[in-house]
Amino acid sequence: xxxxxxMRNEILLRExxxxxxxxxxxVRTYGSNDMRAWAEVxxxxxxxxxxxxxxxxxAQIVFRIRYPHREQLPAVTWQVQWDSTxxxxxxxxxxxxxxxYLHLMCKEAQ
Length: 110
What we know:
This protein has a single domain (9-108), classed as Thrombin, subunit H (Beta Barrel), CATH 2.40.10.270. Helix content is 0%, strand content 58%. The chain has strands at residues 9-14, 16-20, 26-30, 35-42, 46-51, 54-66, 79-82, 85-93, 101-108. The strands form two sheets. A six-stranded antiparallel beta barrel has the order 1-4-6-9-8-7. It starts with 8 loop residues before the first strand and ends with a strand. The model has no long low-confidence stretch (mean pLDDT 86).
């Protein structure tokens, strides 16, 4: 159970919508079905990855939210917006299986 006040960060969970552009290509857009939530935010680790001719740092962050009781739960295609930064959800976990909290493992969007 989180400490009192741990879930003090308001985040925006952004569900994607797939549409077609003028040339008929599928385009993922966000913003039509957003959900606000209070979260505990922590950064358990960072990582590095070879990309091109250099090493790129990958910032990883976890958002713990109360289990949302609605039809559509956050998924790996969703984004999290927090503190003017956008993160891509890499994994969603209900760690204890009791539908109390979800852990959203994220990385900063490129």
